[in-house]
């Protein structure tokens, strides 16, 4: 999948272009409906499906006091999720206060200036441009002028309410991972770089991958049955998220023990899905007691799978 960061770079994509526009935090089921509408146009008419999004999240620039502290996916993680659903290119436009002053007309014209755009797909309530002046009615009018079709998708509902990134983040914070997975269309996971830790797990007989935590939403602390994905492979495992009170209790860490895996993951990206919460984090009187409990946790996680 191509990664682009300027509208001029759209000229490198094979026309006609079928664009899906939005923030797409988490690439949840509602987002995927918009993206799928653009992708289906590729199947019917050829060309490329291009997701157009913004980095950082616009609310972090326009109203940082109301912005979510955590997102459902970093930009790199979002790119990998989009690649899995066969998006051809991702255009991530840098969002600044200056960018926010671009009119809706100028923004759309910048998208169609460098390559033929046949389709623009959006959520039916999506707003854009200076002062949020652009909406679906505006898109349809300018589409007639510039020669592209507009597809506006209604919200996707779940349990009688609209699916939103806010609802999904709350479900994850509550540990309601099955609920989050239904709205995401996949199990929720975070992605991070594997970094060197204290290597205590190796000493205890359970080597772990220490995942650098970023800005992605985390579930409740504790021990989890997990799946790890990296280098085109998948593994089952058990993980601890928390402050390790038996060791030092000072720093929040995320340590993952992958079953039947012994290769070096340092410096590589690992995506970890949260499958089931096994127990809260707790302090043990000794490392021997901790080792005994980890043995039980491994058995418990294997039973989950």
Question: Into which percent range does the helicity of residues fall?
Answer: 25-40%
What's the structural domain tally?
A: 2
* Gross morphology: elongated
Average pLDDT level: 94
Strand order of the largest sheet: 1-4-3-2-5-6
CATH architecture of the largest domain: 3-Layer(aba) Sandwich
- Classify the fold: give the CATH topology of the largest domain: Rossmann fold
The value of Rg in angstroms is 22 Å
How does the helix and strand content classify structurally?
alpha/beta
Describe the oligomeric state of these chains in a short phrase. single chain
The ordered string of helix (H) and strand (E) elements is: EEHEHHEHEHEEEHHEHEEEEEH
Number of strands: 14
> Uncertain segments of ≥5 residues (pLDDT<50)?
none
- From the N-terminal CA to the C-terminal CA, the straight-line distance is 32 Å
Largest sheet data: 6 strands, parallel
At the first level of CATH, the class of the largest domain is: Alpha Beta
Q: Please give the count of helices.
A: 9
Q: What portion of residues belong to β-strands?
A: 25-35%
In a few lines, what is going on in this structure?
This protein is of the alpha/beta class. The chain contains 9 helices and 14 strands. It has 2 domains: 2-162, Rossmann fold (3-Layer(aba) Sandwich), CATH 3.40.50; 190-304, Riboflavin kinase-like (Elongation Factor Tu (Ef-tu), domain 3).
């Amino acid at each position: 999948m191509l990664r682009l960061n300027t509208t001029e770079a759209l000229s490198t994509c094979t026309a006609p272009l079928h664009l899906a526009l939005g923030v797409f935090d988490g690439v949840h089921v509602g987002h995927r409906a918009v993206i799928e509408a653009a992708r289906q146009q590729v199947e019917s008419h050829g060309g490329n499906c291009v997701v157009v999004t913004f980095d950082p999240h616009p609310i972090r620039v326009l109203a940082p006091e109301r912005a979510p502290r955590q997102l459902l996916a970093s930009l790199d993680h979002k790119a990998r999720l989009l690649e899995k659903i066969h998006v051809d290119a991702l255009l991530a436009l840098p969002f600044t206060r200056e960018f926010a002053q671009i009119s809706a007309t100028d923004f759309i014209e910048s998208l169609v200036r460098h390559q033929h755009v046949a389709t623009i797909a959006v959520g039916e309530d999506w707003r854009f441009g200076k002062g949020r002046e652009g909406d679906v009615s505006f898109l349809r009018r300018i589409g007639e002028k510039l020669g592209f079709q507009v597809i506006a998708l209604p919200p996707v509902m779940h349990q009688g309410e609209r699916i939103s990134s806010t609802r999904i983040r709350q479900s994850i914070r509550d540990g309601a991972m099955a609920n989050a997975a239904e709205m995401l269309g996949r199990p929720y996971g975070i992605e991070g770089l594997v970094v060197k830790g204290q290597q205590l797990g190796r000493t205890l007989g359970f080597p772990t991958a220490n995942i650098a935590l970023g800005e992605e939403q985390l579930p409740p602390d504790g021990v989890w049955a997990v799946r790890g994905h990296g280098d085109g492979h998948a593994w089952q495992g058990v993980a601890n998220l928390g402050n390790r009170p038996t060791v030092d209790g000072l720093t929040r860490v995320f340590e993952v023990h992958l079953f039947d895996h012994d290769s070096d993951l340092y410096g590589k990206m690992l995506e970890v899905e949260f499958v089931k919460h096994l127990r809260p984090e707790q302090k043990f009187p000794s490392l021997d007691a901790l080792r005994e409990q980890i043995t039980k946790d491994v058995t418990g996680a294997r039973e989950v799978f």
